Amino acid sequence: MVKDDNKALRYVRKNIILDSILFIFMAGLAVSWDSDLHPILGIIVVILVLIHIAWHQKQIKVMFRQAFPNLTIQRPIKTMLLVLGLIALILSLFMVFE
Predict the structure, then answer these.
(1) Does pTM surpass 0.85?
(2) What are the structural domain ranges in the chain?
(3) CB 37, CB 46: distance < 8 Å
(4) CB neighbours of 44 closer than 8 A, spacing ≥ 6?
(5) How many CB atoms lie within 10 A of CB 41?
(6) What's the sign of the alpha-carbon dihedral 25, 29, 34, 38?
(7) Cα dihedral 81/83/87/90 (nearest 10)
(8) Which domain of life is it from (predicted)?
(9) How far apart are CA 70 and CA 68, in angstroms?
């Protein structure tokens, strides 16, 4: 029982640390709008968000299946989300930093 509690506590700590770092970098994005630091902070935020999503993958799957229990609805929505994500990724690669 103690091992499970420690594991859960470590998970919560890891999450709080990631959320805090993510918040700091997002606040830095707002402040550094005209700075050369802005693109670097943006890349760091994207990486941290991807890590955050990876850590919560099981929870996201469960919530998605609860929201869309029918498989015929799940597939088009997953495809649409994938296409939108790829479009966002591709468009971000063509951004010009001044």
Answers:
(1) no
(2) 1-55, 67-98
(3) no
(4) 25
(5) 19
(6) positive
(7) 110
(8) Bacteria
(9) 6
| SS3 label, residue 96 | coil
Give the pLDDT confidence of 27-79 residue by residue, as tens digits.
887 777 777 887 788 888 888 888 888 888 888 889 889 998 888 998 999 99
SS3 letters across the chain: CHHHHHHHHHHHHHHHHHHHHHHHHHHHHHHCCCCCHHHHHHHHHHHHHHHHHHHCHHHHHHHHHHHCCCHHHHHHHHHHHHHHHHHHHHHHHCCCCC
CB 29 within 8 A of CB 45: yes
Cα–Cα distance, 14 to 66 (Å, whole number): 26
